Amino acid sequence: MRAYFLCLLLALLSATVHSQVPASVRDAYAKFRNQHVFPGMRQTSCNNVIRDRYIYTDNDECKPYNTFIRAHQNVINNICKLAGEPYGRGLTKSIHPFDIVVCVHDDMRNPGRKPCRYTARVKYANRIAIAWKLV
Fold first, then answer.
1. Which residue blocks in 3-135 are alpha helix, DSSP H?
2. In degrees, to the nearest 5, what angle opens at C-alpha 31 toward C-alphas 30 and 32?
3. Rounded Cα distance, 99 and 101, in Å
4. Number of other residues whose CB lies within 10 A of the CB of residue 12
5. What residues contact residue 78 under an 8 Å CB cut-off, 6+ apart?
6. Are 82 and 122 in contact (CB under 8 A)?
7. b vs e for 26-56, b when ≥16 Cβ sit within 10 Å of the residue's Cβ?
8. How far apart are alpha carbons 85 and 130 in whole angstroms?
9. Predicted TM-score (pTM) of this structure
10. Is 132:12 a contact under the CB 8 Å cutoff?
């Protein structure tokens, strides 16, 4: 089986009371969820989802690519708890595979240019690696 490793920031809001979690961690967690978690993501939905979720670079340009994990957030959170194994420096690799949708900008020579148009590939049964921070 081919392994496709995806490095993402995942801040687990575990048992800590929400108001005690620093705003920067809450913001990073919300950004991760918005940009990379969509259980119902379809191969034909890249353009609409990226536009509707306002997924752009910090300079408000099109991202060269974006990856969506087809799973619910609680399943992804489990990678950092029970369903993962250490992988490299500061990463946890999923034990179980995930289906992912990779949206690639149609004009890779000038990916920041709007309008943002993407072509998608679905990658089935790929293990993912996540960088996480437990608060």
1. 23-36, 46-52, 73-77
2. 90
3. 7
4. 20
5. 84
6. no
7. eeebeebeebbbbeebeeebbbebbeeeebb
8. 10
9. 0.80
10. yes
Helical segments of 12-123, H only: 23-36, 46-52, 73-77
Residue 111 near residue 83, CB atoms below 8 Å: no
| Dist CA 85 CA 59 (whole Å) | 35
Q: Looking at the domain that runs over 7-32+41-134, which CATH code has it been given?
A: 3.10.130.10
- Tell me the three state secondary structure of residue 100: strand
* pLDDT tens digits in sequence order for the chain, 135 residues long: 333 434 343 433 333 344 577 888 788 889 999 999 999 999 999 999 999 999 999 999 999 999 999 999 999 988 988 899 988 888 899 999 999 999 999 988 887 778 899 999 999 999 998 887 654
3-state secondary structure of 33: helix
One-letter identity of residue 36:
H
